[in-house]
Amino acid sequence: MSRPSLLDASAARASCLDLWREENDRLVRRAKLRRQLLTQDVLEGLRGLLRSLQGLPAAVPALPLELAVTCNVIILRVSLSRVFPEDQAQGIRQALERVLETQEQLGPRLEQGLRELWDSVLRASALLPALLPALHLLAGLQAALWLSTDRLGDLASMLQTLNGSQSRASEDLLLLLKAWSPPAVESDAPLILQDAQGLKDVLLTASAFRQGLQELITGRLPEALSNLQEAASSLCSRSVLAQVYTALGNCLRKMGNPQRALLYLIAALKEGSPLGPPLLEASRLYQQLGDTTAELESLELLAEALSVTHSSEAPQILIEVELLLPRPDPASPLHCGTQSHVKHLLASRCLQTGRAEDAAEHYLDLLALLFDGSEPRLSPPLCPPGPCMPELFLEAAVALITASRAQDALTVCEELLSRTSFLLPKMHRLWEDVRKGTRELPHCPLWVSAAHLLQGQAWVQLRAQKEAISEFSRCLELLFRAMPEDKDQASNCEQGCRLDAALQHLRSAALISRGLEWAASGQDSKALQDFFLSVQMCPGHRDASFHLLQTLKKLNRKDEASAVWRRLKAQTQPPQEGATWSLPLYLETYLSWIHPPNCETLLEEFQTSLAEPCDVL
Amino acid sequence: MAGTEPRVHYLAGFSCPLGGLAAGKPRVLCHEEEVFLSTGSEFVYVYDQEGGLLTAVYQFPDQVWHLQLLALRRALYVLCARRGIYCLSLESRTRGSSSQTSEDKDSEISSPVITVDPEACVLPHTTLCAFTVHDDVLVALVQSPAQWKMQLFERPCPGEDCWPGGLVGEVELSATMPPVGAPGKLTAPCFLPVLCCVSPPGSRVPRGHPQGCGGFMLEEALFGLLFGADATLLESPVILCGLPDGQLCCVVLKALVTSRSAPGDPKALVKILHHLEEPVVFIGALKTEPQAEEAVESMLPCEDVYSDCLVALGHHGRALAIKASWNKSGSLVPELREYLLPGPVLCAACSGGSRLYHSTPSDLCVVDLALGGTPLNLEQPQPDGAPGGLPPLLCPASLSICSVLTLSVLSRTPAGGTELLALSAKGRLMTCRLDLNSEMPGPTKMTTENAGQKIKELLSGIGDVSERVSFLKKAVDQRNKALTSLNEAMNVSCALLSSREGAPPISCTITTAWSRLQLQDVLMATCLLENNSDFSLDQGWTLCIQVLTSSSALDLDSAGSAVTYTIPVDRLSPGSQREVTLPLGPSESGVLDLPVTMSCTLFYSLKEVVGRALAPSDPLEDPFLEEQPLDLLPEQEGICLPLSRHTVDMLQCLRFPNLAPPRAHIPCPLGPAADLVDTFLETCRPPGSESAGPEALRAKYLPPSTASIRVSAELLRAALEDSHSGVSLCSATLQWLLAENAAVDIVRAQALSSVQGVAPDGTDVHLIIHEVAMNDLCLAGPIQAVEIQVESSSLADMCRAHHAIVGRMQTMVMEQAARGSSPPDLRVQYLRQIHANHEALLREVQSLRDRLCTEDEAGSCATAQRLLQVYKQLRSPSLVLL
Lengths: 617, 882
Description:
The complex is a heterodimer of chains A (617) and B (882). In chain A, 70% of the residues lie in helices and 0% in strands. Chain A has 617 residues and is mainly alpha-helical. Helices cover 23% and strands 33% of the residues of chain B. The longest helix of chain B is centred in the middle third of the chain and has 51 residues, at 448-498. The N and C termini of chain B lie far apart (106 Å). Chain A: Keywords: DNA damage, DNA repair, Nucleus, Repeat, TPR repeat.
């Protein structure tokens, strides 16, 4: 009585299985059309199918299809979201538990980790040859997941079990991956989006590349080189290859092989698509070689390359190498910010290398880019190592003054002032709450006074002494208002230190500038007062002492001059140089302007003039 | 004059589910004369205020969570749950982005329903929870399993199928709490995050952003303070984001642009402004400086107004206001102040001025954040035009409009009032006209002319209040009823539990009888629930009868099945009774696994009675309660009182067709699934002739199985003393055995001592009772005993009957033992021998059963045979019950 009904049921299930398989195949074919709306629907369809399959008790005949559908769902989800979602492991775990269910081994395994689960499944799967192709694909997906989450120990152990025990000795991931040979898919198997062999190639490239990058960042260069070369020699897309070549270039540059590095970078450029990283790397290389023209050229090219918006095409419905690579952070050699980052880099390099006209042009370009609201693709170079917006304005103004475009510099400073001055304190002492405040606000007085300083310098260039002196005075007024109250607090954080150093130098620069103006207009006593104040403000600052010395000499006040001279002689060269490293670029450039042109000759001259009366005496 | 018009004007009603609309997701927008409205369902309605009719209804594939209108571009962006963002071009509405039109079942919607084409989905995304469109970019908040992600897209236009290629920036928000939902499965959040876009002053923002569309401008001091010099210098809009965990953070829009490969660094990009510690439901901005008030009033709200105060509102009424002010040392600092407003807040809106409207289930309130708005601070001196501080406390003024789910400030009327567009929980769209002079509390002068107007307003306010009153009244009624019911339940429970001795005040007695349903005889159990207590069993009480069949003897492994019937006791007043009849079997296959145990319990469902009262009668009271409905109630969610337990055994189920009085001749009981032909032959058979059915054949060739039990006559006499008077002991014993059988009367009448019955499956069962003398048991001489013999052609039925008899004997012996009757002197030696025999047999049974489990088929057959023999031996009457 009961036998025929059982037969019926199994017949029905078989036909049902066929139906489900057809549904799977149909959905997979649809997914390959690669339209997002469709793909979403396909994903929903596959999930529904999986739910139906999992509604039945696990049985060996239905499992290959179920595993195939699970794999399809995972592949589709990953390629849709372009990351490995955290809950992917859940899907894999469920599939494994279903496999164990058929073996009636699913007792106390619920608490097991994925790694142990894989162990028992792979041991059990020896009894189930029909499941092997699907299980290998699932293992490939698990490997991708573990690779992207850096769980290499688990990955290696799973691969060892997968390969059988003969390679147990080896712990090397690459060797293990190479030894893995997924069984061929039978022709009548349900369609899958990506087969295990393809996944293996992707995994091989990705793991070699990942390891190489990591070693590159941690500075183990020879290992990095071999891993990267391994990645370059394996199967991968052109864009990945370009990245690998760039990393190789970076590695070789650090190893001191600039010529070989250059060859790799050229190869990377030939591969096309992401042009940014190799160009940036090339500019670093040229900078290291001291070839400024080539360096700036490659930066210009880079800025141009980044300005082209390459249309993003629909991604493949596949697990690709790109998905398994770590997100490029600023430390990575593959990171090349946005167009505005590069523009700023270019402009500041021009400024540093003395190409003032170019620097000015680039700064103006950058400001125009940032303020043209129509382009949403640009972001300001706001990352903490880079300057913030007000500093960008100040750098632009400095570049303009250097390029003798004082009027433009005045405009830029005016703009900055109009947009920040309302944030200035109304009365004295903003200082103490400033120290623990936000990033911008403590700097605000600094920026505003620097803007006044630059405006003064611009007036100097325009030969408008009165305006220049009044700007310098306003700058000084602001600076002395923002006097640090207690020094203990000042030294407790690095940012505070930098701020203090910048403030000190700014004060002395403003005093020197005003003094120079007084001196130029013949009011030497006022000039002397400013230089003297400047020396007092910033005793380590040799420039102020030089100017003081010069003025004293001019006024023929020999005793004081010789005292200054002796102090200058006693001061050994370096401390000032050491302090400047942390100064912002605009301030550094400004300080170079007010640096007395011929210090050494002045010193020697003075020594001789000092020696003569000694001889006389 | 405005005062002559009614204050609240109902425009239209929209379908709403039972219990009202849920808060949080409905939206209402107004552009010129058109009102765009979503109620949280999958429809978006377009209502024409001028014509007073619906002009279009769009149907989306899932719930609509958010609307935003780009008036200049005539585009409506719609966030559809689990689908993504759709863009409807309002220009082409008449041409139709519609693929098909269909008549909606909802009668109140007269205009055709336009099913939105899937092609209109411009940003498909399954976990998108909020968005805002600004200029040419679209900022979306996406829920990922662990945190929120803010994504920046180029604004998609209708008809574009855009891959995430349009993604130009991304940053993760460091939400402390992962969004709700089990790991691995995203569920729809009950609180949506709030996004809004803050523009710096003077930026070239396209005009015509209606209020509430997630955009406003802040004056430069506050903007610079909150968002820093970079945002100020860049003139970049800033996205403010209020998360369900209470975090209020901001992201500078221009800085959010990152390359696709690298999401932005949250530390550099995201700045946390505040933490409200309750879900943020609203972010807005106000203009609180009084000196600009006149200027503001003359402007239309869509005109650019630089707000100087940022406000954020939490679900439970915590409000945050931030304003720039000078501190003592003269530096500009943001002044943060938290207030507590009445909650839960359903929605809120800011007028162009300093007033914040917020809606709770009971009222629509308005607060004024201008320093001068509160009478206390009128005299406070303001130093040289510096921004004044925030008022130390807010006093919300009631507007007497309840349960408004979404608000939109329409415009300022020429008279200086404000007009709000609101959607109530009942699905009513209305405009509320608020007069500036009368809406605020405080010392307003009452003149004769505005007295009349005031009265009119009060009268029109009554209309709104009545809706609220009905809500509250219903809730109170329900709670009272629940309390009464609970009290009764307590009384009943106490009465039942305290009366363990004696007759229970509430009892359930069970009797069984055969009856014929259709073509099959069915054993029916009748449960009689009697309420003899002083309390009535009211709503919430359920009678649960669990029917537990014993496992079939043929199948060693199968456990018995249990069926529980629950019958609501709908009001059982004191003294009344209720009868429930249940079929016990036999089932389709003709099997009735005796004995059947029935246990009756009374169950009082706390969930049904108390739960309903605790649940918000007014769905707006706390619309988000549903997810943690009644954690206060214990797991079982009720009180369970056991009433009685009854076992239905073979003796109760036997039928005696031979005993039936001739006049009420019942046709021969049918086997449950008896063959119709057999039945026919059976009836055709001439009386007296031998039956030729299989039964007869079996009876002929298979010796019937027998079992017997001996009981000492003395014991029986003692037990049956009251009933056996006048009849022989054998007959009395039979009557006692069949006491619960319907045939007992006939047995009594005919004083039978042996009887032939039919078991439920149709086999014959003989019960023969006769007296015997046991000679070698007692030293004092032979013991008079009664032997009860069971005989049946079916082994199973014989066993069941035997089991039933043994069961009765056990109870009887227990009772007698309790009475302390003394057994006569026995020959212990003999007893011991019998006992030892039986023990040996039992041991054998045990080992045989063990073997049965392990052996293969051939072996087990032999074992089973042997087992049967041993059982037979065990049943042989060598012992007597004394």
